[in-house]
Amino acid sequence: MQLDFSKLGNGLIPAIVQDAQTNVVLMLGFMNEEAFAKTQKEGKVTFFSRTKNRLWTKGEESGNFLNVVSVTPDCDNDTILIKANPVGPVCHLGTDTCFAEENKGNIDFLVHLQDLIDKRLQDMPEGSYTTSLFEKGINKIAQKVGEEAVETVIEAKDNNDDLFLNEVADLTYHTLVLLTAKNYRIEDVVKILQERHK
How are beta strands 13-19 and 80-86 bridged, if at all? Predict the structure, then answer.
C-alpha cells in the first residue's frame, strides 16, 4: 500500500476509524509513516500525536485499544479508513465515539454475521455448529428454518418478550445460513424489500 504522506506538508495523513461491526465512525486521528507502520505491524491503531509530538497508540493508558480489522486508502492515497474493533469507550471523555454518538449494534451487523457464516462454509472448522448445519445439507438447513419459525410463532403468542426475541434471533441466524447455502446474501433480500417499498 503506497500512501502519500506529503500532501498536508507535515508528513501526516488523516486516519478515519470506523467500528468494523456497526460502521459507526469512532474518531479521526493523524498518522505519519512510522505510526502507520506500527499500526500495520501490531494490529492496534497508532497515531502521531501533534500535541505530544510522539507516536501514540490509542488505549496505551486506558486499555481501550482499537484492534485493526482492515485498512483502506482513499482514491488519492492521502487518507485512510481503518475498520477496527474497539475495546471499551473510544473517547477520553468516556463516550463511545469522539463525536458523542452511541456505538450501538445496528442492522449492518447482519452483513458482518453473514460474512462469518460464509467463512465457516469456506473453512468448515470442526466443532462449529454452523459447520454441522452445512454438513447436513440444504434440506436439513431449510427444515431448521421451519422449526425456528414455528418456535417464533409459539413464543409470539405468549408474554415472555425475552423468549420471543431469542427465537426471532435463532430464526434470523438460520435464515442467514440458508441464504448462504443457496449462494445468496442478506443484501439480496434487502434489495427486494427496497424495490417493494418504491
Answer: parallel
Which positions ≥6 away from 80 have C-beta within 8 Å? 3, 13, 14, 15, 16, 31, 36, 71, 72, 73, 74
SS (H, E, C) the chain: CCCCCCCCCCCCEEEEEEECCCCCEEEEEEECHHHHHHHHHHCECEEEECCCCEEEECCCCCCCCEEEEEEEECCCCCCEEEEEEECCCCCCCCCCCCCCCCCCCCCHHHHHHHHHHHHHHHHCCCCCHHHHHHHHCHHHHHHHHHHHHHHHHHHHCCCCHHHHHHHHHHHHHHHHHHHHHCCCCHHHHHHHHHHHHC
pTM over 0.70: no
CA–CA separation, 116 and 183 (whole Å): 14
Distance CA 50, CA 53 (A): 5
Q: Encode pLDDT of 124-179 as tens digits.
A: 999 999 999 999 999 999 999 999 999 999 999 999 999 999 999 999 999 999 99
Q: Which residue reads 497508532 in cell numbers?
A: 46
